[in-house]
């Protein structure tokens, strides 16, 4: 099973929209897909009209109460399963803080719940805290949604620094597959400049870097009002507006992701007991 983390610590860049609609597109293409909503805002879950009550099992219970992923899983379609989130997840980092092997809880849960799935996508929280570290420790690949604005570029260095630390300390097979430009306005000078800057940065990666070989995906996600509307109807863009530019773009992106060779498996050490500060860089240590 390929495990792909969809991550950007900056909010509003299309992270959850990408996770949800890529997952739906892959399922439509015949893949058996698991989507883990690891964001306390639970926007990925709301996309499917799923709002978890206080007594229902969610990703929070999986991480903090030793519940299995199978206990929280909700079948959305024949080929698509969702592990929903809940606002209580915001307190998970404090609850996990004193536990041993706290950075690898999700990795261990996924290892026991991967049979029958081709792809797992993890919708990460918009932060670089312990929830995100759990996602990175469990994943093999990272896809970074990026809005083509210069302000959106500023956090990229910090994100890659965190990826490097997690790769060194917890998950040596972790790598960045690529950057996808969202809310893209074709033909604008700014969008082209940002796209070129990101491509040049990735091209300068050394073989030891986690982003060596990463790409700017050829598919860009055009700014499309249908993508903004569909969550309020509890639907993906393929159900809400199947002929829209949003549906067309995410179908193309899913095919591009599917065409990437899955990374070679390597043994993963889940026995590390590192403090969160060892896995997450301090704010003043991150590059601009």
Fold topology:
Layout: E1 2-6, H1 15-28, E2 33-37, H2 43-47, H3 59-64, H4 69-72, E3 74-77, E4 80-83, H5 92-96, H6 105-111, E5 119-123, H7 130-138, E6 141-146, H8 150-153, H9 156-169, E7 175-181, H10 189-203, E8 215-216, H11 225-229, H12 237-240, H13 245-259, H14 276-279
Parallel strand pairs: 1-5, 1-6, 2-4, 2-5, 6-7, 7-8
Antiparallel strand pairs: 3-4
- N-to-C series of helices and strands: EHEHHHEEHHEHEHHEHEHHHH
Main β-sheet: number of strands, strand sense, barrel status?
Answer: 8 strands, mixed
The name CATH uses for the topology is Rossmann fold
CATH class: Alpha Beta
Globular, elongated, flat, extended or rod-shaped: what is the shape? globular
Question: What would your notes on this structure say?
Answer:
The protein has 288 residues and is of the alpha/beta class. The chain has a single domain (2-262), classed as Rossmann fold (3-Layer(aba) Sandwich), CATH 3.40.50. 39% of the residues lie in helices and 13% in strands. It has 14 helices and 8 strands. The protein has helices at 15-28, 43-47, 59-64, 69-72, 92-96, 105-111, 130-138, 150-153, 156-169, 189-203, 225-229, 237-240, 245-259, 276-279, and strands at residues 2-6, 33-37, 74-77, 80-83, 119-123, 141-146, 175-181, 215-216. Strands 3-4-2-5-1-6-7-8 form an 8-stranded mixed β-sheet, sandwiched between helices. Strand 7, helix 10 and strand 8 form a beta-alpha-beta unit. The longest helix has 15 residues, at 189-203. The radius of gyration is 18 Å and the shape is globular. The two termini are 34 Å apart. Residues 262-288 have low confidence and may be disordered.
